[in-house]
Structure formats: structure tokens, C-alpha cells
Predict the structure.
Amino acid sequence: KISPSILSADFSKLGEEVLALEKAGADYIHIDVMDGHFVPNLTIGPGVIKSIRPYTNKIFDVHLMINPVMNILPSFIEAGSDIITIHHEISDNVFDCINLIKKNNLKAGISIKPKTEAKEIIPYLELIDLILVMTVEPGFGGQKFLSNQLKKIMDIKDLISNRNIELEVDGGINYNTSKQVIEAGANVLVSGSTIFSSKNYNEAISKLRGND
Ligand code: DX5
Ligand code: ZN
């Protein structure tokens, strides 16, 4: 599955961009929310998600790079998110956050930063629907893929074993690194700059899936 990140989209016409991604065959729409505290960048809030919601029925794969996040979770739930992914590294009680997301019938994801080890996700395995492995230091699009994360992806694939948990990767995913992460076991690929720098979103998405 391909989950284009709108971080690299034209923010002056996000609704049209989201519609274009749907037409181009995106499986999810990846929405990178940054608070300027957990990561050194500030992007969009729940109000923007609310305003683009009517443009598509595609799954909103919302990646919250926010700390603390518990108190603002309800706003993202109400805004129309379908999957909400929070970070293992936050100061809130992660289990309370997961429970709030699931109580509202949304899918819950946990993301880990490059320096966080695979074993840290073990306590969440019975509770979550998705694991997001950051293959760049979170904060900005267009960064270089960290190939030292490939081993972690394989290890997490093993930890997931036969559970119904999606393994998503995010950061530096282009036509070359997409092949490596698929090989390592990822089944959802987030990609931003590669898609939005291409002339044809449909072609870019198809190539990222491995259909050259
Ligand atoms: C980092 C962001 C980026 C973005 C993808 O915090 O999460 O990884 O989604 O950006 P590209 O595909 O341009 O690396
Ligand atoms: Zn992301």
C-alpha cells in the first residue's frame, strides 16, 4: 500500500491535492502533524484535516508527531482521522492514548524514531493495528533514507508474526529505497517528495509499488 504524505504537497490547494492523490490510486493519505516541540517543525492542525475531509473517502493515515498528545487527541478524532499514529517516545501514557483512539473506533498506530529499538514495540503488539518505522529523523520531508533501519524493519516483521498489524515505513522512500523496504517486510510505504516532485502522481505511486 502507498500512503502519500501531504507534507510535500502544495499547502495552498490541499483539497485538490488530496483529490488528485485519490485519483492517482493512493491507498491512504498520510497526514504529517508536527508541533514544533516533539519535532523541530510545525505543520497542520485538526482544522485543516476537517477541511480536507470532504474531498475524499480515502483513509486518513494521521501521523501525530506531538508531545504531549493526550489532550489534543479528541480534536484529531473529531476532525475525521481514520488511523491515528502516536509516538512511543512521548511523555503521556501511551496505553491511555491507544485506548482513547480505539474507544472511538479508529485504528491505532505506534511510531518509533530511528534511535528507538524494535523491542520497544513488544508491549503494544496485542493492542495496535499499525507500526510506523521512521526511516528518517522525523521533522522534514526530502531527507535521505537511513538504511540502518532495514534490519529493524525485518526484526519488527518477525515480532508482528501472524498478527493483523500493518508495517508502515516513513522517510526517504523513493523508487530505489521502496524496493529495499518491501524486501525487508514493509507493507505500507509513506512517500512525500518523490510523489509531489513527479509530473504524474499515478505513475509515481505505481512505480513505488514496484510496477516499473
Ligand atoms: C518526516 C515526515 C516525512 C514524510 C515523507 O517527519 O514524516 O518522512 O512523511 O517525506 P519524504 O518521502 O519526502 O521523505
Ligand atoms: Zn509521517
